[in-house]
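User: What would this chain look like folded?
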Amino acid sequence: MCAPMSANASRVDHGQQGLISMHPTWYPAGMKKTSLYLEDTDVARPRRLAATEGRSQAQIVRAAIAAYDLRHQADRSFALAGAWEGDGTSIANIHEEDLLRGFGT
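Assistant: Here's the prediction, encoded as structure tokens.
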């Protein structure tokens, strides 16, 4: 009797007397395997970069995704931007007419 298969093991039936062998995957258990559909010109890029940097193509793709994600995250440091600029007077002390000047009123 065979042991239960793990989440990252493949099952191969050899067809001989019902023999089943287990072949564990080579990728780390904390990762999911996926496929990418790339143009021919795009296939060469991660291959070339991996060879140049001595890393795997998967590491190159993961680094590219992380860099893309960072570049597209909104800057969240705006909350206090300019809070200490100016002469220290409160906006509450400025007359409404002065605040609305330039807004078409």
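Residues 13 and 20 are 5 Å apart (CA to CA). If you want, I can go into more detail on any region.
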